[in-house]
Design brief:
The structure holds 2 protein chains of 2 kinds. Chain A contains 13 helices and 2 strands. By secondary structure, chain A is mainly α. In chain A, strand 1 and strand 2 form a beta hairpin. By secondary structure, chain B is mainly α. Chain B has a single domain, classed as MetI-like fold (Orthogonal Bundle). Chain B contains 15 helices and no strands. The chains are: A mainly alpha, B mainly alpha. Chains A and B meet through helix 1, helix 3, helix 4, helix 5 and helix 6 of A and helix 1, helix 3, helix 5, helix 6 and helix 7 of B.
């Protein structure tokens, strides 16, 4: 209530007389988007569901098999190992990244930083690097041939663990993703912090609240909306993990399997295995899982607001 | 009520203006600056690595330390020249393709999102709630889950291996729509639109003459988000395109990188690194030029909820 900007945007006031004209007016703006949306979102979703209910057999051709593909997916150890891998990634990488982003945003917002705009721009810079280029670059850095890791080993006479070995590859990918997106999330949080009225901090300081208390009781609650949105987008991003493992696979074919992430699995099924129907079922299961997790996070995030 | 509660604190501050003004800007903290420098180093060191190593030859990459220059020779300019001429100058082609996909794909996505976001924010119409529910639901559907069925659909109508296969799916950005919706609701006073309607202006005229200028920061923000999304979408062009002539930079650079692993393939890591540097520099230039606009747009988008 104290922050009017945070309220939901006002609905357009009803204008009974011109309602029909306004209705046309609305559709003339929303229509073009919805046409393309139906073509590239709704149609593929529908087609995916259709495909997932069929199976191409050697004898008999394309046949309706009901939910067979889904029962197969739910019992598929490779699929579940992929889901487990992105689940682990999500539980470890997303909190680390968002925590670092929040710290950086609070540092920028504190007004106690020398060279604030330098930090704002430089921490954000990696976001402007395409993920493929980031994965190529970090792949070189990780590599033992002319990578930094190899250099450091040679220069200091130590033997750092190979970041591309199977037990470390997920953490190495997590590092690439964190590097890419920490600045982006920082900027989202920082922008949200900037619209919090500064007078709130002054009143709190007069009441004897310290910096940590102000952060905990005023700043974090004030940007809760931004935190929830950033969390949801990070979850969706983790579940979709594809670029980094696909690129690093050139360097670490043994560490990255064809079913490393659910997306990579669906890709391998389609393009190496020609199993379009099964691949569609895997994609549908993954989409449903993503929506459920995102929805739960949103419910929890907004419930705690009240 | 909150306003009245706040006023006394402010006036009491003004009664001793000297101390207040010095307190208003808290003292800089060296410790905080040092800690934040660690974050900045983390962000910048890989980019410095990229810059330094783009000055090395293929042999120099292996013989010199990663974070320092190769004493032997400074090969940045010959690397740039080689990047543009290697393999019949295909890099220039990839650059032009990327530009095409970004201008038409991200530009088109922004245009559609601006129109629809404005329509959702400023009009009441039949089916509005349904539109909103469907689009917000779509934000959670991973685009890559759509890519495989889209590929199968496109291959039936012969669109795969053409630029359209990359452009058409890029035209819709549910997140862009969400951003424009929140931005339009805040940035355009409804009374202003009413006034224009009373004056007899058509809806389209009102939109282009009155609303678009007010929406400019939001439009730039949406454009940058769709631009990054288009550049980051590696999966879509990877499955849609077979002909290297239609590759965007990202797919092309990775194909150069991967050729070292194939039998008889020439290792051109220096060109992969230089090509990456060129890509990054171009994107950074776009970001920094538009910085002024997108930051204010971002603020508006993130305060929603």
């Amino acid at each position: 209530m104290a922050v009017p900007q945070l309220a939901a945007p006002p609905a357009a006031p009803p204008q009974g007389v011109r309602r029909r004209r306004r209705s046309l007016g609305g559709w003339q703006f929303v229509g073009p988007f919805m046409v393309v949306f139906a073509l590239v979102f709704l149609a593929p979703i529908g087609y995916s569901i259709y495909l997932s209910l069929y199976r191409n057999r050697l004898i008999g051709g394309n046949a309706f098999v009901g939910l067979d593909n889904y029962t197969q997916a739910l019992q598929d150890a490779q699929f579940w190992s992929a889901v487990g891998r992105v689940g682990l990634f999500l539980v470890v990488q997303v909190p680390i990244m968002l925590f670092l982003a929040l710290l950086a945003a609070l540092a920028l917002d504190s007004g106690r930083l020398y060279g604030k705009s330098f930090f704002r721009v430089s921490i954000f810079l990696p976001y402007a690097v395409p993920t493929v280029v980031a994965a190529l670059m970090w792949g070189f850095i990780y590599g033992s041939q002319f990578g930094l890791v190899g250099n450091i080993n040679d220069a200091l006479g130590v033997a750092l663990p190979d970041p591309l070995q199977p037990s470390l590859i997920l953490a190495s990918i997590g590092n690439i993703t964190t590097w890419e997106f920490v600045g982006y999330n920082m900027l989202i949080f920082y922008s949200a912090l900037q619209v919090v009225p500064k007078s709130l901090y002054e009143s709190a300081a007069i009441d004897g609240a310290g910096q940590l208390r102000i952060i905990r009781s005023i700043k974090i609650p004030a940007i809760r909306g931004a935190l929830v949105i950033a969390t949801i987008f990070s979850i969706i991003g983790s579940f979709q993990l594809f670029n980094e493992p696909a690129i690093l696979r050139n360097l670490a074919p043994n560490a990255i399997t064809t079913y490393f992430t659910p997306n990579f699995y669906a890709y391998s099924l389609t393009f190496s295995g020609q199993q379009f129907n099964y691949s569609a079922a895997v994609a549908v299961v993954m989409a449903v899982l993503t929506i459920i997790v995102a929805y739960v996070v949103q419910l929890r995030g907004t419930k705690e607001l009240g | 009520m909150t306003t009245t509660a706040r006023t006394p604190a402010r006036t009491s501050g003004q009664s001793k203006p000297v101390t207040m003004s010095s307190k208003k800007r808290p003292k800089g903290s060296i410790l905080l600056t040092l800690l934040t420098s660690l974050m900045a180093l983390y962000a910048l060191v890989p980019l410095a690595w990229l810059l330094i190593n783009s000055t090395k030859t293929q042999e120099g990459l292996f013989s010199s330390f990663g974070l320092w220059f190769d004493d032997g020779k400074f090969a940045l300019f010959s690397n740039i020249a080689d990047t543009f001429t290697y393999d019949g100058g295909v890099f220039t082609r990839w650059l032009a393709n990327t530009l095409l996909y970004v201008v038409v794909g991200a530009g088109g996505a922004t245009f559609l999102a601006v129109l629809a976001g404005y329509g959702l924010a400023k009009f009441n119409f039949a089916g509005k709630k349904a539109v909103f529910a469907i689009v917000i639901g779509a934000v959670a559907v991973p685009p890559t889950a759509l890519a495989v069925p889209t590929f199968l659909m496109f291959s039936k109508v012969g669109l795969t291996d053409t630029p359209w296969a990359v452009i058409i799916p890029s035209l819709v950005s549910p997140f862009g729509l969400y951003l424009m919706w929140t931005f339009a609701a805040q940035a355009i006073p409804t009374e202003m639109l009413e006034a224009a309607r009373v004056d007899g202006a058509s809806e389209m005229r009102t939109f282009f003459r009155i609303s678009v200028p007010l929406l400019a920061p939001g439009i730039v923000t949406t454009l940058l988000f769709t631009l990054v999304a288009t550049m980051n979408n590696y999966f879509l062009p990877l499955i849609m395109l077979k002909n290297p002539d239609w590759y965007p930079l990202t797919v092309g650079l990775n194909s150069w990188n991967a050729q070292a692993a194939t039998a008889g393939g020439e290792a051109v890591f220096n060109l992969v690194i230089t090509g990456s540097l060129i890509t990054v520099v171009l994107l950074l230039a776009a970001f920094l030029t538009l910085q002024r606009y997108w930051q204010s747009g971002l603020a508006a988008g993130s305060v929603k909820e």
